[in-house]
Amino acid sequence: MNFRCKPNVQLSAIQIAVFLLLFIFPCVYGQNTITGIVSDNVNMKPIADATVYINGTTIGTSTNESGLFTLKEVQFPCKLIVSRIGYELTTIDVAQYNPERFTILLQEKTVQLSEVEVTGKNSRDKSVQKFRNIFLGSDSWSKKIILENESVLQFSRYTDTIKHKPDSLDILLKKIELSDLVRNDSADNQRILNIFSVRANAPIKIDYPELGFKLSVDLVGFKIIESPQASICKYLAYYFYQPYPFKNNMVERKFQKNRTSAFYNSREHFCRALYSDRLKQNGYVAIEYYINDSTQEIEKEFVNFNNYMRYKSRNELQIVGLKGRTFYIFDFFNYNNKPIDMTHKRFNYSTVDKFWTTALDYRTSNNNYLGKINSTITFASDTCTIRSDGTILDENVLFAGKIIKKKVDAMIPDFLLKEQ
Description:
Layout: H1 13-30, E1 34-40, E2 51-54, E3 60-62, E4 68-71, E5 78-83, E6 90-94, E7 102-106, H2 121-136, E8 146-147, E9 153-163, H3 169-175, E10 183-185, E11 190-200, E12 204-208, E13 213-226, E14 231-243, H4 249-263, H5 267-275, E15 284-291, E16 298-302, E17 309-311, E18 316-320, E19 325-331, H6 352-366, E20 373-379, E21 383-387, E22 397-401
Parallel strand pairs: 1-7
Antiparallel strand pairs: 1-4, 2-3, 2-5, 5-6, 8-12, 9-11, 10-11, 11-13, 12-13, 13-14, 15-16, 15-19, 17-18, 18-21, 19-20, 20-22
């Protein structure tokens, strides 16, 4: 006689939950992973010790002897950066998870001589300081940054001739008063610009001892168009953050407090507040001054950026229809460098004059610091794009004044910044 045993298939709720976790977790985990191999594009040999990272994050690694790498906990979309001394920097926009292994071919870098290279110790020291002020910033937090390998920086000065572009360049120069920056050549309608250029032959290593992290910067390009009165700076760089190892909660709280203080009243802070339509809650009031055509008097009114905001995606916002207009930014922070919520009922926004009356009363009664015209923002294009993290995707949003004193020290990602 044959006996057939009926298995007991009744599972408890806990067993079912464990089973589902074991089944689901590898799928989710795998969908946040990028794998690939880095090779030379000529001989196809694998490249070891190449740095592979996700721009603006702490997610990064180095390739092994076989050129292989794996990045975990990736959030899509993202920008994948591959950096190796002696090779051209490679960037890849990754829109979504792809189970296939990336094959990344690096091209050997060709050496180019600078037009007029800056030589001499005194000249180099001045060039390094200029780069620090413009790239790293000039506020109190920026001065505490340690530039660990300034020897990788190469400086040059030269002139550049560009075609006259009245729709963009005129706005750019006029709005920030750079009329003496250029010399016009009316014969062929060109402009000759003085350029201060910086290159880096290796990633720039920066240490933030007061903020608790290090930063590796791949500098793609850096140029300053100079004038005795002002300057225009254009640069492109990619960033790999490396937080200090955890020590204790007290140290971490200190770092968080310092990061928040460094972040406040920066371009990134303003842009994040603008993206979320919370400028007043973050201590900012924007006012436009203009001449009334009929009375020829100077008028002033509050700016409601919400009328010009178009959300392109979950992470991108477009400012539309403000080309050529400049707005004055007033910042309202207390003596502890925390923003004052300007939506308080004590502030009267019926007119600009009434607002200032109530603002001054608030300062007197609460012994608070209140802002002056510290900064301006100018839109040089009909469409300007700002991301939710406070970064600007083009060169058409121009800041001037106090707000630009903070630079890389204020570019603190969300995962390193927990506002107090």
